[in-house]
């Protein structure tokens, strides 16, 4: 395999060199329009997934607002890109909104290893307990998304991200419409869904001014418990565009209360009745307080057979976000543009679990904080206590770039700076048996906490610089080259330290200190050759970096490693994750003069990744059984550097068009990502061995040669669209192959295929004075498939967490434009 990887790299580098050395034609001046900008300008009229030419030298696909809303009106942007090649996004709700049980993988990289932006503004790394951003569905209302562009191989050099080892997901908001008007969408359906969206557009006024304001109310009961996932959101956008430049101002408000699904802990080889009890769902009891109390015995114990997969009273995520930016793109001359964008984001949120006090290490925790006391009495005498992780994000930054066309060169210089103050406070509250009305999954308890287990305060400065030259060597050959510098200065303190022994995996105070990482030269080179009027070949080679996560509330981060010694070891001896990504591909777009088949779009892309210093976080045994991949009592993961990962894969996408009546899109993806080496639990580092098997021998865990968990080898996506006059129908099929669920590959979940369908009819709007009116019906999980949705791997062998696939649901939507 090493010979194969060496040849792969040599082939891709040689291809880049061959394209760059093609005999040049006379130079000419050209200012190419970025395809991402073209996609962003599309508003409501695009009718296809774009598979060609979205990024000149990179594999990329775009999906526009029309196609997004066809999948399901109001669907989250991440859920919408599930139809794109190389992308796996699964959640336990049909909208894709729930963040706690979301799983996103592209080419073997998770969401936390990709770049994410909205109109250029960084959205962070999408960790569930996010410390540096927010999800796209909180940053923008789905109906206001203009397009989503997914670069599956590598993101642009200038993307504002500290995490993009692989590709990038760029979300673009739609611009205000040219005509004054209003849009009203209302969706109702399964489990009491009621979603109302209203948007008012000013139309163009004055000298190049336009704007819109919009409001959303979303409310739907979860399919397997009685919690209501609900929230309010508002967006506003203003644009002033004239010959001197373009001014854009954007504001987003999101207030979301989201009761959470609880994962089922699965043991491949259970050793007792509790491990053997593996229910398909774990619904919480709320609002049935009497039922929750009756579930426990007099001592507060859950049924013995359910000790691993017990039921909570409730769990939820509460998030309130304010996000805004002002951007001005100045046209300094016909050849030079200077763009400056300032942004600000504030988040106030909490993760809440109201659970039994006798499970997952809690008796030990409470006995340390209430020594010699009756623990049930100390926590409100209900047998339950409430754990919260209360978050704060306060960040702002600036993005600046200069684009200059100099002959047949387009030069871009850019900079991004961000300051972020974030915090995570772990509080515990009593759940008083005499006042059950005080507690719900939609707000924090109305009284002071019993105690704060720990509190982290993080401060981060990020500076990123980049330079790139796009050289139009000939009319048919484009060569791009450049590099970026990425610097992070992060420090963390714990104003409140846990009592020693209260966190599984930690026998000392949590670590404090500063870690600065600086990588001055992260290069990229690529080329695109239009060898016919309809076909082009592209190649790209790029080095990327993911900085250490400056987060003190858990996860694979130095500040959650459990001891000062472990932190210092990572600080002085550890290295952040890096990757070399190589990709080569062919794109084709042809119009066919035929009464039957009228058009073909296709793209095939091969990629190879050398991933260095892969970090794993192994959950301590005392924390297994909780939600979100960790125990209710908390815990600090052991962080290991398992060395390199090698990835080889291929994506292929094809769209066939049969006039204006029918189109068929299919995408197939293959990915093979394997660990280079075993690792040692003694040294915390890769061993360079591949001992095989699944048993740990002398502290050596046999990960070498094993596939990375959760990311499937095979995926296939199909979209068939039929349009007959005012009638429109669409069918989507999504196949996700077998996924391993442990780091040694001794357990896995089966492949799944899901389908969804849509029918819509455009009403005769002009009769009643409307610009447009449409009624549609969407059905998700058409064949009522059961199985594993999101999988969480946090152990070397035997056990993992899994969420169920939501059942078939239907949603009807009326959309009118005045």
Structural summary, described in words:
With 818 residues, the protein is mostly beta strands. The protein has a single domain, classed as Maltoporin, Chain A, CATH 2.40.170.20. 9% of the residues lie in helices and 48% in strands. The chain contains ten helices and 39 strands. The strands form seven sheets. The protein has a 22-stranded antiparallel β-barrel. Strands 1-7-8-5-6 form a five-stranded mixed β-sheet. Strand 17 and strand 18 form a beta hairpin. The longest helix is centred in the first third of the chain and has 19 residues, at 2-20. The chain is globular, with a radius of gyration of 26 Å. 51% of the residues are buried. Mean pLDDT is 89; it is low at 1-46 and 621-630. Residues 1-29 form the signal peptide. It comes from Sphingobium limneticum. It is a multi-pass membrane protein. It is found in: Cell outer membrane. Pfam families: Plug.
Features:
single chain; 818 residues; mainly beta; Maltoporin, Chain A; 22-stranded antiparallel barrel; five-stranded mixed β-sheet; 10 helices; 39 strands; globular; signal; membrane; transport
Give a quick precis of the structure.
One of its GO terms (molecular function) is siderophore uptake transmembrane transporter activity. It is found in: Cell outer membrane. This protein is mostly beta strands.
Give Rg in angstroms: 26 Å
Number of contiguous helices: 10
| Strand coverage percent | over 45%
Number of domains: 1
On the 0-100 scale, what is the average pLDDT? 89
Can you name the CATH architecture?
A: Beta Barrel
CATH class: Mainly Beta
Overall spatial form: globular
**Low-confidence stretches at least 5 residues in length (pLDDT < 50)?**
1-46, 621-630
Q: What structural class do you assign from the helix and strand content? A: mainly beta
CATH topology: Maltoporin, Chain A
Termini gap: 61 Å
Provide the CATH superfamily.
Answer: TonB-dependent receptor, beta-barrel domain
Q: Report on the biggest sheet.
A: 22 strands, antiparallel, barrel
What is the number of E strands? 39
Pfam family, one: Plug
Family: Belongs to the TonB-dependent receptor family.
Main location: membrane
Organism: Sphingobium limneticum
């Amino acid at each position: 395999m090493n010979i194969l990887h060496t040849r792969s790299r040599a082939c891709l580098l040689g291809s880049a060199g061959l394209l760059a050395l093609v005999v040049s034609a006379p130079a000419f001046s050209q200012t190419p329009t970025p395809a991402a900008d073209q996609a962003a300008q599309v508003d409501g009229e695009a009718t296809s997934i774009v598979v060609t030419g979205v990024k000149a030298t990179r594999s990329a696909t775009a999906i526009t607002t029309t196609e997004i809303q066809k999948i399901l009106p109001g669907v989250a942007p991440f859920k919408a890109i599930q139809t794109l090649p190389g992308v796996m996004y699964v959640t336990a709700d049909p909208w894709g909104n729930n963040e706690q049980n979301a799983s996103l993988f592209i080419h073997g990289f998770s969401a936390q290893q990709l770049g994410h932006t909205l109109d250029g503004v960084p959205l962070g790394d999408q960790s569930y307990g996010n410390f540096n951003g927010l999800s796209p569905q909180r940053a923008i209302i789905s109906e206001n998304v203009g397009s989503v562009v997914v670069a599956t191989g590598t993101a642009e050099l200038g993307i504002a991200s500290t995490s993009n080892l692989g590709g990038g997901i760029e979300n673009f908001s739609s611009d205000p419409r040219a005509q004054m008007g209003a849009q009203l969408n209302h969706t109702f359906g399964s489990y009491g869904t009621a979603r109302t969206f209203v948007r008012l557009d000013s139309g163009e006024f004055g000298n190049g001014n336009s704007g819109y304001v919009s409001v959303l109310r979303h409310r739907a009961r979860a399919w397997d418990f009685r919690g209501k996932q609900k929230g309010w959101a508002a967006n506003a956008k203003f644009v002033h565009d004239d010959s001197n430049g373009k001014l854009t101002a954007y504001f987003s408000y999101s207030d979301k209360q989201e009761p959470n699904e609880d994962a089922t802990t699965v043991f491949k080889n259970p050793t007792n009745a509790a491990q053997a009890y593996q229910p398909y769902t774990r619904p919480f009891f709320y609002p049935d307080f009497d039922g929750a109390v009756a579930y426990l015995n007099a001592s507060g114990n859950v049924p013995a057979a359910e000790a691993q997969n017990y039921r909570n009273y409730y769990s939820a995520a509460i998030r309130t976000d304010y996000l805004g930016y002002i951007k001005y793109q100045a046209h300094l001359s016909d050849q030079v543009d200077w763009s400056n964008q300032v942004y600000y984001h504030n988040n106030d949120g909490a993760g809440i679990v109201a659970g039994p006090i006798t499970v997952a290490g809690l008796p030990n925790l409470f006995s340390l904080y209430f020594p010699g006391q009756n623990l049930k009495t100390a926590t409100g005498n209900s047998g339950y206590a409430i754990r919260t992780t209360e978050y704060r994000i306060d960040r702002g930054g600036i993005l600046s770039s200069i684009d200059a066309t100099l002959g047949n060169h387009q030069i871009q210089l850019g900079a991004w700076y961000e300051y972020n103050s974030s915090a995570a406070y772990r509080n515990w509250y009593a759940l008083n048996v005499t006042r059950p009305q005080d507690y719900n999954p939609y707000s924090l308890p109305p009284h002071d906490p019993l105690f704060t287990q720990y509190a982290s305060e993080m401060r981060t400065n990020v500076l990123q610089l980049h330079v790139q030259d796009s050289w139009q060597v000939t009319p048919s050959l484009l060569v791009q080259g450049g590099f970026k510098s990425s610097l992070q200065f992060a420090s963390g303190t714990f104003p409140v330290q846990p009592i020693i022994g209260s966190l599984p995996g930690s026998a000392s105070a949590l670590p404090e200190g500063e870690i600065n990482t600086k990588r001055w030269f992260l290069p990229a080179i690529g080329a695109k050759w239009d060898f016919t009027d309809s076909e082009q070949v592209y190649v790209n080679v790029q080095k990327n970096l993911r900085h250490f996560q400056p987060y003190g509330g858990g996860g694979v981060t130095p500040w959650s490693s459990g001891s000062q010694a472990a932190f210092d070891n990572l600080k002085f001896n550890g290295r952040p994750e890096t990757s070399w990504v190589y990709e080569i591909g062919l794109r084709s777009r042809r119009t066919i003069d035929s009464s039957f088949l009228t058009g073909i779009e296709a793209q095939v892309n091969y990629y190879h990744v050398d991933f260095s210093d892969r970090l794993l976080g192994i959950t301590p045994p005392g924390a297994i059984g909780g939600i979100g991949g960790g125990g209710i009592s908390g815990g600090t993961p052991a962080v290991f550097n398992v060395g390199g990962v090698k990835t080889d894969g291929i994506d292929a996408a094809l769209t066939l068009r049969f006039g204006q009546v029918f189109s068929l899109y299919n995408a197939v993806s293959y990915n093979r990502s394997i660990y280079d080496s075993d690792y040692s639990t003694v040294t915390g580092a890769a061993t360079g061995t591949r001992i095989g098997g699944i048993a740990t021998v002398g502290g050596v865990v046999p990960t070498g040669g094993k596939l990375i968990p959760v990311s499937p080898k095979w995926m296939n996506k199909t979209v068939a669209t039929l349009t007959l006059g005012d009638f429109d129908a669409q069918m989507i099929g999504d196949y996700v192959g077998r996924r391993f669920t442990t780091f040694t590959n001794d357990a896995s979940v089966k492949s799944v295929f899901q389908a969804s369908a849509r029918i819509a009819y455009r009403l005769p709007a002009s009769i009643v004075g409307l610009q447009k009116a449409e009624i549609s019906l969407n059905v998700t999980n058409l064949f009522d498939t059961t199985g594993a949705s999101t999988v969480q791997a946090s152990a070397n062998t035997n056990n993992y967490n899994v969420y169920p696939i939501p059942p078939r649901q239907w949603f009807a939507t009326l959309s009118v434009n005045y």
